[in-house]
Every structure is written in C-alpha cells, then in structure tokens.
Design brief:
The structure holds two protein chains of two kinds.
Chain A lengths: L3 H4 L1 E12 L2 E12 L3 E5 L6 H8 L7 E6 L8 H7 E4 L11 H10 L7 H7 L15 H13 L5 E5 L7 H16 L3 E6 L2 H7 L2 E6 L2 E6 L1 H6 L5 E7 L7 H5 L4 E7 L2 E6 L2 H15 L3 E8 L2 H9 L7
Parallel strand pairs in A: 3-7, 3-8, 5-6, 6-7
Antiparallel strand pairs in A: 1-2, 1-4, 8-9, 10-12, 10-13, 11-12
Chain B lengths: L2 H7 L2 H14 L2 H21 L8 E6 L2 H12 L4 E6 L1 H9 L6 E4 L6 E4 L5 H17 L20 H31 L2 H6 L5 H31 L7 H22 L6 H18 L14 H6 L1 H15 L3 H25 L4
Parallel strand pairs in B: 1-2, 1-3
Antiparallel strand pairs in B: 3-4
Classes of the chains: A alpha/beta, B mainly alpha.
Chain lengths: ~325, ~350
C-alpha cells in the first residue's frame, strides 16, 4: 500500500505503564500496528495483555506512556474514536433474555453509520439464531455475537481480547475464518491470545509479552527463525538413568536442550542429520527412551526459549 | 414501516428502553411482584379487615331461680347483648377469662341487681351501659326523647381506605429500587456496562432509558392497583387526578434515583440485595404502610417524617382520602423532591461503569 493514509499507524503505543495496588501490569510497552495489519499480543495469563488492550480501548487510564489510536488521543476525541473502533471484551455476557437480533440492533443504534443489523448477523453466520434468545446460544455462537456487536459501526480498528478462549477446535476455526475476512476487508486488528496456533495463523506481527514487558517482536516466521533451529525433538526417558543435558548439547547440530520433569526438548536445525546422532548419544548414556516426538518449531518454542516456561503453565 | 418510524425505532434511547421492557416482561416473577402481588395483598387485607356488623356483647347472669330467668329474658330483647345464665362460680370464671364482659347478680328483691365488671376494660364499661339500659327499660322506664338509629359506613374511614395508599407507596418504592438496582448491578457483573461504554452510546440516554421505562410501567402499576381498590372496595379518590399523578411520578423518580444510588458501586446481586433491604426495611415498618406512623414515639418522629416513603404515603392519603390541595401537599412533595435531587446527585458522583 502507498500514500500517507497507509503509512500512518492505526495504533501507536509508546512507553506504556500501568500499576495496580500490588502488581505492575504493564511495564514499559511499545506497540505499532499499521493499517490493515493483524497484530497479536501473545503471552500467558497475567502478562498484561488485557490491561494493555483496555488502555488502547480507552477503558483504563495508563499511569504513563502515549497512546495514539487512528491518529487520535483518548481524552480529546473520545466520541469520534468510539465510532471508529470495534471492540470485543473478554467475557462480556449479553443479556440472556434478548434475542440475537435485538442485541445486534441495540448495538447498531449507537453508531452513526455502519452495516444493517441483518448484514452483520449474516457476516458472523448467525442467521439461523436470529430470533433465538442469547441464553440459548453455544459458546462459539456467543463469541460470534460479540464479533457482530464489534462490527456494527464498520470499524477501522478492531480490538479482540481472547476471542476464542474456551472454545472447541471447530468453533475456533470458524472464528478464525471470520477474523481472516475482517483482515481481507482492510481493517487493522489487535488480538490477544495465548494460543500459538491462533497467532501463527492470523497475525502479521506478533509481540510476545511476559510480566508486562515485550520480550520479542516480529512476524511469526521471523520469531521462529530467530531460534536458528526449526525443529524440536521431544523425548521421555524411563527413570533411573539420569540424562546428561551437557552431553546432549555437545551433539552436532543441537542448538538447545531443556529438561522439564521427565521430558526433554531439544532444538535442532536439521532433523535428518541430528536425530541419528542424538539417538547414538542417548544409547551411549544408557538411556531407555519411552517416547520420541518431533515437530516444527512454533511460537510456543520461542516462548519457552525466552522465558523457560510454557504459555499455559498457570 | 415508514422511514420515520424506522428511524424512531432505531434511535438509541428507544432501543435502550425497549430492552428494559423486554427484560421486565420476559421475567414472569417480576411481572407478578409488580402487578399481581399488590392487588392480591389489597384484596386480602380488604377482606380481612372489612367492617362487620357489631357483634353482641356476651354477659352472664348468675343462676338464682326465677329472678335470673326474667333478667335473661329482659337482656335477650336487646340486639346488642348475648346473655346466658351460669352458676356463680362459672360466671366468675367466665368474667375472669374474658369470655363475658360483665356478670349480673339478681338481687334478693326483684327490683335490685348487682353488676360485676372490670371498669378498666372498655367492653365491660359498654356492657354496663347496655345491660343497665335493657333492665331499666324492661322494668318500665320510659325515655323522654324518641331517637332512631341509622348505621353508616363512610368510605374513607375504613382500614382498606387507609391501607391502599400505603400499599401504593410501598409498591412505588419496591419497583423503583428493585427495578433499577438489580438490572444495573447485573449488567455490571456481566461486564455489559463496560461493553456498552466502549460504544458511542450516550451514558445519559442509558440512564434515561431506565427512567422512561419506569415511568411507563408506573402508569400500568398505579392504574391496576388504584382501579382495583376503587372498583372492588369503593376506596375514594377525593383529590384531583392531577395531584395523584404528580405524586406518583415524583415518587417513582425519587425511588428510581435511590435505586440508582444503591446500585452505583455494588458488584454482585447479593451485595445490592442486602443494601436495598437495609434501606427498605425501616420504611416498611416506620413509614405507615399498614398502620399509622404516629404510633411510634415522638422522639422517633423527626426521623420517620424524613423518610421518603412516609412522605409518599402521607401525600397519597391526603390526596386520595382527604382531597387535599397543593398547599396541604407541599411539605411532602418537598421531601420527596429533596430525596430525588440528593440521591441522583450522589448516584451520578459515585456511579461506576465497570
């Protein structure tokens, strides 16, 4: 894309800090989302994702830092910004006694312009539930209703806070299809998630956050490539014989080896060269394998590498 | 649908108000408590405390041969007395336990008698007058003045007349405080308030939708209860309809503001329930719903008179039963208005959207 409109970032966050009574939720965060980009905030529970997104949504006041949304500031252009943003909060429960259509119509009435309630219900594929009470909807359908309510103002920027948390894989995939279509429409999206797959599939840029700080930033591909090892070998050994991690690290082609309980994760650049050598080393140590798996490195591996913890540990 | 009506229907204030109606009418329990229960209560109290024909006062005559028989016969002619002959010990026992109001002991001579009764008991003093009257007349007394009795039951002075304005006031309080309190706290708990303020929705319109829906439901609420009381029990409406309407409107707004204040911070429905009961319970007792607030000691009266429900009940009674004009209603209307302004100002200051 060219021209000044596309070069101005949809969201710019500089030096954001927010502290609650006993905990620092956001500790100096910078973000930049360009128009038409889907940006993922990835991190475990308590990393400060929701606080960050709610500051950007103008629902929480930051202690420090600058937030520029679509070139405007909270406190100066609130009404205008509310018209331009689409928001899906974590765990909003809509009134159970209203129907899908009544709920969407209510939200539509708040915006000066945008698609009709019927159109939006069609977009999120809830036509069949149009006259159904919200109380009767499944988790996936409720999330799609939340997306519908985020879309009624034809937003230029969408904030989606954990849009698929707690959903079954099929509903999750359905939501991903929807979000991909919003991207195709040219809307910028800020998404928080603790699902790797979600970030890898949807996001153009990913910031990995932990304890309120950004610890890595890049495209999913860049982040994985930064490990300089594209594959992960995981194995479990029968207890009794201790595995020497140093021994593993000395095998040619092993980038890193980490132990977690009885499982070991070894990152390697080239499976076909390194795996035979690794197995030879284990045999030399007298280790009896009970399990052996390999997968391509993911953002999860990046997170483990950066923090020594898993994303969904807590 | 024309474009005009469609535009009106899609106005946020209309949509928000429609949501209020839908949430109310789709909750059968709420409809019962607001519309049906007050009518049932009025019917029950009206029937239980209806004015009955005065009962005959029971008296005993000590058995002493022929003398007692003629006394019983003389007393039986009075429509107000129920006389029975008893042995002396049984008569004393009946007097002591309150089964009779008075005991007549016929004298040795036929023209003497003794009345035994407790002059502290009002019904005994009445029995003394009735018995004496009946015996003196039976013995041939002639009254110098000819009188005729005509019984009247004046609407406005019966218990049902007293209690209907009280029930109306109590209902205005309950539906205002519950109606707002629960809905707002529930929306806050569900993070729906937070979601709503993330849209361009006007916060004033959101609160206005509660007021608007309360006021329209109020019309039904008042019409049902007052209509039933007028048709079924002939409860009078002596004041102007305008004064009744203004009192009800102002009271509904005032209690809605109080509901808003109670709901301004609470995060759980349990929390706000406790708060609402704490505020409403004293008013149920002190504010003269079922019995007059003047029964409480003078020391409590300044507190009682300052309660909004006391003012509402007094104003409703003054208008409905006494036909009071604006000048007479002014102090009560002032108190209700003061509660409205105070609660609303405080609620706006304290209200939490998240």
């Amino acid at each position: 894309m060219t021209g000044p409109a596309s070069s101005a970032p949809s969201l710019l966050v500089r030096g954001l800090r927010k502290r609650y009574a006993d905990v620092v939720a956001v500790d100096g965060l910078d973000l930049e989302i360009r128009a038409g980009e889907c940006f993922g905030l990835l991190g475990p529970n308590g990393a400060g994702k929701t606080t960050t997104i709610e500051i950007c949504e103008g629902l929480t006041e930051p202690d420090e830092g600058e937030v520029l949304v679509l070139g405007r500031r909270w406190g100066e252009h609130d009404r205008e910004l509310r018209e331009l943003l689409g928001i899906s909060l974590q765990e909003t429960q809509f009134s159970e006694k209203l129907t899908v259509e009544e709920t969407v119509r209510l939200f539509r009435s708040f915006y000066r312009q945008g698609p009709s309630a019927d159109e939006v219900i069609g977009t999120v594929q809830l036509q069949e539930k149009r006259a159904g009470r919200v109380g009767q909807l499944s988790g996936g359908q409720r999330q799609r209703l939340a997306l519908a309510c985020a879309l009624v103002g034809d937003p230029a920027l969408l904030f989606l806070d954990e849009p698929t948390t707690g959903l079954d894989p099929q509903s999750r995939r359905q939501l991903w299809d929807l979000i991909e279509r919003f991207k195709a429409d040219g809307r910028a999206i800020l998404l928080t998630t603790h699902y790797m797959e979600e970030a890898e599939r949807l996001c153009d840029q990913v910031a990995i956050v932990d304890h309120g700080r950004q610890i890595a930033l890049g495209t999913p591909r860049e982040l994985v490539a930064s490990l300089s090892a594209e594959h992960v070998v995981e194995f479990a050994a029968s207890p009794g014989v201790p595995v020497s991690e140093d021994g593993l690290r000395q095998v040619d082609g092993v980038e890193a080896a980490v132990r977690r309980d009885d499982t070991y994760r070894v990152r390697v650049a080239e499976l076909h060269r390194t795996v035979p050598a690794l197995l030879a080393e284990l045999r030399r140590q007298g280790v009896q394998l009970t399990e052996l798996r390999t997968h391509s490195a993911t953002l999860e591996d990046v997170f483990v590498e950066l923090t020594g913890r898993h994303l969904r540990d807590q | 649908m024309t474009n005009e009506t469609r535009r009106l229907r899609d106005h946020p204030l209309v949509q928000l108000t429609l949501v209020r109606y839908r949430e109310f009418f789709r909750e059968p329990e709420a409809v019962f408590w607001v519309f049906v229960f007050p009518v049932l209560l009025t019917a029950g109290l009206g029937i239980a405390f209806r004015n009955q024909a005065p009962e005959r006062t029971p008296v005993a005559v000590v058995e002493r041969g022929a003398a007692s028989a003629s006394v019983v016969e003389a007393l039986a002619r009075s429509p107000d007395l129920l006389a029975s002959a008893l042995p002396e010990a049984a008569a004393a026992d009946a007097l002591r336990t309150g089964r009779v109001a008075l005991v007549v002991v016929p004298g040795a001579a036929s023209d003497t008698a003794e009345y035994r009764f407790d002059s502290e008991r009002p019904e005994s003093r009445i029995a003394r007058l009735l018995v004496d009257d009946a015996l003196q007349r039976a013995a041939g007394r002639r009254d110098p003045i000819g009188v005729a009795d005509r019984r009247v039951s004046e609407p406005g002075s019966r218990y049902v007349d007293f209690v209907v304005p009280g029930l109306l006031g109590m209902n205005l309080m309950g539906s205002g405080i519950w109606g707002l309190g629960f809905a707002i706290v529930d929306a806050r708990r569900k993070k729906l308030l937070k979601r709503l303020i993330a849209t361009p929705m006007s916060r004033v319109q959101f609160l206005a939708s509660f007021v608007l829906s309360r006021l329209t439901l109020l019309v039904i609420e008042v019409a049902v209860l007052v209509g039933f009381a007028v048709l079924a029990f002939g409860v009078p409406l002596r004041g102007s309809v305008a004064s009744l309407v203004i009192i009800c409107l102002l009271s509904a707004l005032s209690f809605a503001a109080l509901g808003l204040l109670l709901a301004s911070r609470a995060r759980t429905v349990e929390g706000v329930s406790g708060l609402m009961n704490l505020v409403m319970l004293p008013m149920w007792i002190f504010s003269g719903v079922f019995f007059s607030a003047s029964r409480f000691p003078d020391a409590l009266q300044p507190f009682i008179q300052a309660l909004p429900l006391t003012a509402v009940n007094d104003a409703l009674r003054a208008s409905m039963l006494e036909g009071a004009g604006w000048a007479r209603l002014a102090p009560e209307i002032g108190i209700i208005g003061a509660w409205l302004l105070l609660s609303f100002a405080l609620a706006v200051r304290l209200f939490r959207w998240r």
